[in-house]
Design brief:
The complex is a heterodimer of chains A (about 375) and B (about 775). Chain A is α+β, with helices and mostly antiparallel strands and about 375 residues long. Chain A is built from twelve helices and eleven strands. Helix content of chain A is about 40%, strand content about 20%. Chain B folds into six domains: about 1-40 and about 155-185, Phenylalanyl-tRNA Synthetase, Chain B, domain 1 (2-Layer Sandwich); about 45-150, Beta Barrel (OB fold (Dihydrolipoamide Acetyltransferase, E2P)), CATH 2.40.50.140; about 205-390, Phenylalanyl-trna Synthetase, Chain B, domain 3 (Phenylalanyl-tRNA Synthetase, Chain B, domain 3, 3-Layer(bba) Sandwich), CATH 3.50.40.10; about 400-460, Phenylalanyl-tRNA Synthetase, Chain B, domain 1; about 485-675, BirA Bifunctional Protein, domain 2 (2-Layer Sandwich), CATH 3.30.930; about 700-785, Alpha-Beta Plaits (2-Layer Sandwich). Classes of the chains: A alpha+beta (about 375), B alpha+beta (about 775).
Chain lengths: ~375, ~775
């Protein structure tokens, strides 16, 4: 028996070593360990031996069987690895080939982006958002704003009128929202109203449609100093700098008294616009304390209520902040423009990230 | 309002520099838009006198000049045809900046002759447009004198006077504000009455309420030559052309004091003057040599032969003053601003007089202006004045405001000492008596109540001391955006994430195209361009125009969207917010992994489904084929609706319409009416608790054969209706029509996913559900399981 095992062992090891595919190895395994295999056959002869012989031979045979099984496993692993490697080699592709056509993200228009930036700041100060209609009546666009029919300010704003509707026009300012808000709500009022506005102008910095945002605060205690504080804080957050200088220049608007234009300190070096103090001034917005006549028209007693209003061009802020040269291009719907100046949908303005969203990788 | 430094200094005694004055004007609300320092621009340019002139040996059109610069003669090559020996002109020596070119002059060699300087034209000095020859300066000043002196070059301020400040359309008004702000001392001319020597033979009456006061006087024996040099210089300094002494006096006082006047040649008047409403069809040849046809409602000054001037706007040529005028009738009147503005607009006339009357002229200047003008005419032209004739009288416009000085602090948030406030008001011409403030006659239009006085005080005081008080929210944690606006914001970013680019297009469009998109006929009276004349009834036409423009310059694939208003009626609020998207061109180009394909209805349907999800449209919204407006492809479009309430349309754009827009690729589009949605929810609701199960989903396939007209949507909803909890997905993996089926039939192959939550389904249970699916689909659609 011992001799038999030794010779079979040598024979099987040679066969295992000689197998060069998993299939050939399987044949060897079956010939050794299968139902009719040679080791199986040897196991079957154990029954004919004496108990003493059986014990010795059985131990030897078991060791032999275990060894062969281990050799088979080892060889199988080797062969499998080799075959896998061969398959992987055969499967290789040229990864420098271009990817499948993708749906690349579109862009958000700068006016929307900047409006959201502004609203983010005003929300933090506790303003609500109000909206009003694009088509206005004479009362809300002019009369209630202290601009009676003969007022020269009507000529200051080239108004679009509707045919056969002498009393209707496209709003020349978002200020009508002030009136509509005060008509519907008692103070305290604290709103901003963004929206489309219309004037009959067309050049590099004027388009027949543009966007304004209007602010209105009415209560019993809000002063010009609050307006200044609000605007300075707004400018700091919007332009992300603490070096903000603001100057109030007396001006004239029929719906505020006193009225001012607010200028912000800025520099323009090599065509780059920068908010900073001590370098020069840039006209920013119109503002003032709400005119007593406007309060009266809305049923508020100016001896009791007071507040401020401001209005500015959103498009202009977008141009200044993001260096967009020509206002007319805002409304051209040119793919080249929107993909260049637009924002990724993931660029949601937040105060924690800072409002400027030019850092995101563009695709 | 253009204002020269020399003109200002006639009314303001000051030693401030032009920059200081300009800064102060801006600081008090008279914004200086530009300071034009004509003297500084002419720095280094001097008077040169031509002492000899010879033909250039090598050029026909050039001369070689010898020019005296005050110390020596200089050789200059010059091409000007108008140069002559003895002429004084503007000489620039090498190193001098030439205003027009913004570059320094260098010595030159012109056709072999050295030129050591340049004689300049008007245009080269930025003084005008004339470039036909060099400047011919008629002056007694010697060569070498700066040209700026010879030309009286002055500093010019371009002041943006706001419409409430009619008084600052006069130089003296600006001087008064500057004096109040500490920039100097106001100097006003003597307005004491000049005694009349006789009774004017010309009398005046006014029958028009637009002329409450008309005054005048005759001055006999005047000599109407050129006005004196000082007056001519001042007129020229603000861009006016001197004409004759009488006319110049009126122009001068118009600019200086904002007091429009008129002079009639009394010798040409027929009888007396009446201020009246014009008669329809009356004509007048005005001083601009144009003939105007007048109509009732316009005010004229007429003599007995007819209108001689359009009141307050422009005089007539018939009775205008000429060098031969010896007797002049001087008019000083007050006209209603609205009447003047309307008349001038109707006749389309601009004049300095009209510009002032329509902004509001100081009513009291009617009498003062007459006396000041009389004095000037007597000084310059001599003559004997009559007594003043007057028609009408001014309404009493005196206004007294009871003013609480604390209002300044109440409105502005900082205090100004009361003495300072009183001082400012007094300097501006207000009379302060305790809390009673009298408004000066020239500010009647503008200053009506306390808030107006606050403005006067703070604008002169300055706002440098104003503190900054930040505004803090009254309540925290309250969402600021209205729910509808938040929904729009989410929608925009969802659509952008799908590859659509947000655009903003005009609210108006071409009415011819609007007619193809359900025009609502909301047309503008005065559009900015003829193809932007109607308020858009749909977002699509502007988006399609944008597609065409983009494709015209080579961008073939155009995915765009807009969220904005469409207009339904010409009334406030009759507008709806829509979201619309277009995709044009290819979805993808040829690629080794997938073939090229153009965009199709299922691309835009996917965009729309995403949009509906972003705006939280109700789950039970039904998508049906057809029902979209005529601008869609009738067989490749659909409607999303909640019952009868249409939320959206989508599909291919009708090829005939694409042709109208000049688009050569297919375009798919959707329009979603955000106003048709149920109101947006304000607050996030807590989610239902998530129930997870370890059980595995299983799928079953079905192949149904049905009439071609049956929609997949119907089949899918029938399947889902069998068990809404268990059936989690129904997908269509094959649609077949062809010769293996009877004509008019199609086959839909469907995979149904069943996902049990509580216990594993037995074979029998699965069988039951399968049977239910087959039966319900058969019942609802007539489809049969493939045999």
């Amino acid at each position: 028996m011992e001799q038999e095992i030794l010779s079979l062992r040598q024979e099987l090891i040679a066969a295992i070593e000689g197998a060069d595919t998993v299939a050939a190895l399987e044949t060897v395994r079956v010939s050794a360990l299968g139902k009719n295999g040679r080791i199986t056959a040897l196991m079957k002869t154990l029954g004919a031996l004496t108990p003493q012989e059986r014990k010795t031979a059985g131990q030897a045979l078991n060791t032999f069987k275990t060894d062969i099984a281990a050799f088979l496993d080892e060889k199988k692993a080797t062969l499998e690895t080799r075959e896998l490697n061969a398959r992987l080699h055969a499967e290789s592709v040229d990864v420098t080939l271009p990817i499948r056509p993708q749906n690349t993200p579109g862009r958000i228009h700068p006016v929307t982006q900047v409006t959201e930036e502004m609203l983010t700041i005003f929300a933090q100060m506790g303003f609500d958002v109000a909206e009003g209609p694009d088509i206005e009546d004479d009362y809300h666009n002019f009369e209630a704003l202290n601009i009676p029919a003969s007022h020269p300010a009507r000529q200051m704003q080239a108004t679009f009128f509707l045919k056969d509707q002498p009393d209707k026009m496209l709003r020349t300012q978002t200020s009508g929202v002030q009136i509509r808000t005060m008509e519907n709500k008692k103070p305290p009022i604290k709103i901003v109203a963004p929206g489309r506005t219309y004037r009959r102008d067309y050049d590099m910095t004027h388009t027949p449609m543009f966007h304004q945002i209007e602010g209105l605060v009415i209560d019993k205690k809000t002063t010009l100093a609050h307006l200044k504080g609000t605007l300075i804080e707004f400018m700091k957050l919007f332009f992300e700098t603490n070096d903000v200088a603001l100057r109030f220049r007396p001006s004239y608007f029929p719906f505020t008294e006193p009225s001012f234009e607010a200028d912000v300190g800025c520099s323009r070096e090599n065509g780059e616009f920068k908010i900073k103090s001590g370098a020069g001034w840039c006209e920013l917005l119109g503002c003032g304390m709400v005119h007593p006549n406007v309060l009266r028209t809305c049923g508020l007693d100016p001896d009791e209520y007071q507040g401020f209003a401001f209005g500015c061009g959103i498009d202009r802020f977008a141009m200044l902040k993001y260096g967009i040269p020509d206002l007319r291009s805002f409304f051209d719907a040119d793919m080249r423009w929107i993909r260049h100046y637009g924002f990724l949908p993931t660029d949601v303005p937040t105060l924690i990230n800072g409002l400027s969203q030019t850092a995101g990788a563009k695709r | 309002m253009k204002l020269s430094l020399s003109f200002l200094k006639r009314y303001l005694k000051t030693n401030w520099t032009p920059t200081e004055l300009a800064d102060k004007m801006t600081a008090i609300g008279l914004e200086v838009e530009e300071i034009i320092d004509r003297a500084a621009a002419l720095d280094g340019i001097i008077i040169g006198e031509i002492v000899s002139k010879e033909k250039h040996p090598n050029a026909d059109k050039l001369n070689v000049l010898s020019v005296f610069d005050g110390t020596k003669n200089i050789q200059i090559v010059c091409g000007a045809p108008n140069c002559y020996v003895g002429m004084k002109s503007a000489l620039a020596l090498p190193g001098t900046l030439i205003p027009q070119y913004g570059e320094k002059l260098e010595k030159g060699l012109i056709r072999g002759i050295e030129s050591r300087g340049m004689m300049c034209s008007e245009r080269e000095l930025n003084l005008g447009n004339d470039h036909t020859g060099i400047l011919d300066i008629k002056t007694d000043l010697p060569a070498g004198t700066p040209v700026a002196r010879a030309l009286n070059a002055d500093v010019l301020f371009d002041v943006n006077v706001t419409p409430n400040r009619g008084d600052c359309y006069g130089v003296a008004g600006i001087a008064r504000d500057l004096a109040a702000a500490g920039a100097g001392e106001l100097m006003l001319p003597d307005a004491t009455p000049v005694a009349g020597a006789f009774i004017s033979p010309v009398t005046v009456t006014t029958t028009d309420s637009a002329c409450p006061l008309f005054t005048g006087r005759l001055i006999r024996g005047v000599k109407n030559g050129p006005s004196p040099e000082w007056m001519q210089n001042l007129l020229v300094s603000v861009g006016l052309r001197p004409i004759s002494a009488l006319v110049d006096v009126t122009n001068f006082l118009n600019i200086a004091l904002c007091r429009p006047l008129h002079v009639f040649d009394a010798g040409k008047l027929t009888g007396n003057l009446t201020v009246r409403s014009a008669k329809d069809g009356e004509t007048l040849v005005a001083l601009d040599d144009k003939t105007y046809t007048l109509s009732a409602g316009m005010t004229v000054v007429a003599d007995e032969s007819g209108p001689q001037s359009i009141a307050g706007v422009m005089g007539g040529t018939n009775t205008g003053c000429t060098p031969e005028t010896t007797d002049v009738f001087l008019e000083s009147a007050w006209f209603d601003p609205i009447r003047i503005a309307q008349t001038a607009r109707t006749l389309n006339i601009e004049s300095d007089s009209k510009a002032r009357f329509e902004r509001g002229v100081d009513p009291l200047s009617t009498r003062d202006g007459l006396e000041i003008a009389t004095r000037l005419i007597l000084d310059i032209c001599g003559g004997t004045p009559s007594k003043v004739v007057t028609a009408g009288q001014l309404p009493d416009t005196k206004r007294t405001i009871t003013f609480d000085f604390n209002l300044v602090e109440r409105l502005c948030g900082f205090a100004i000492p009361k003495e300072r406030m009183i001082d400012i008001l007094t300097r501006l011409g207000f009379t302060v008596d305790g809390s009673c403030i009298d408004v000066p006659s020239w500010r009647q239009n503008d200053v009506r109540e306390g808030a107006d006085l606050v403005e006067e005080i703070v604008r002169i005081n300055g706002l440098d001391d104003m503190p900054e008080h930040p505004l803090r929210p009254d309540q925290l944690g309250v969402a600021m955006l209205p729910p509808a606006a938040r929904r729009e914001a989410a929608l925009r970013r969802s659509l952008a994430a799908r590859g659509l680019n947000q655009v903003i297009t005009w609210s108006f469009m071409d009415s011819k195209k609007a007619a193809l998109f359900g025009s609502k006929g909301i047309v503008l009276t005065n559009p900015i361009a003829s193809d932007l004349d109607e308020m858009r009834p749909s977002l699509l036409p502007n988006l399609l125009s944008a597609v065409a423009r983009n494709q015209d310059h080579g961008t073939r694939d155009v995915p765009l969207f807009e969220v904005g208003p469409v207009f339904t009626a010409p009334t406030p609020g009759a507008q709806q917010t829509f979201a619309a998207a277009v995709r044009a061109g290819n979805w993808n180009d040829r690629h080794f992994l997938q073939p090229a394909r153009t965009v199709d209805v299922f691309d835009i349907k996917a965009d729309l489904m995403d949009a509906l999800a972003a705006v939280e449209a109700p789950q039970n919204a039904q998508i049906t084929g057809g029902g979209a407006p005529a601008w869609y492809h009738p067989g490749r479009s659909g409607t999303v609706a909640l019952g009868k309430n249409v939320l959206a349309w989508f599909g291919e754009i009708h090829p005939a319409l694409l042709k109208t827009f000049g688009i050569k690729t297919p375009v798919v589009a959707f329009e979603l009416n955000l106003n048709a949605l149920p109101p947006a929810r304000n607050k996030a609701k807590a989610q239902k608790a998530l129930k997870m199960s370890d059980l595995m989903p299983l799928t079953r396939d079905f192949a149904f054969v049905m009439d071609e007209s049956v929609t997949a949507g119907k089949v899918i909803s029938a399947i889902r209706a069998v068990n809404k909890d268990l059936i989690t997905d129904v997908s269509v993996f094959d649609v077949y029509t062809g010769d293996k089926l009877p004509a008019g039939k199609k086959q839909l192959a469907v995979q149904v996913t069943l996902w049990p939550r509580d216990k594993t389904l037995t074979d029998q249970e699965i069988e039951v559900i399968s049977t239910q699916i087959i039966n319900l689909v058969a019942k609802n659609t007539g489809a049969a399981l493939r045999a």
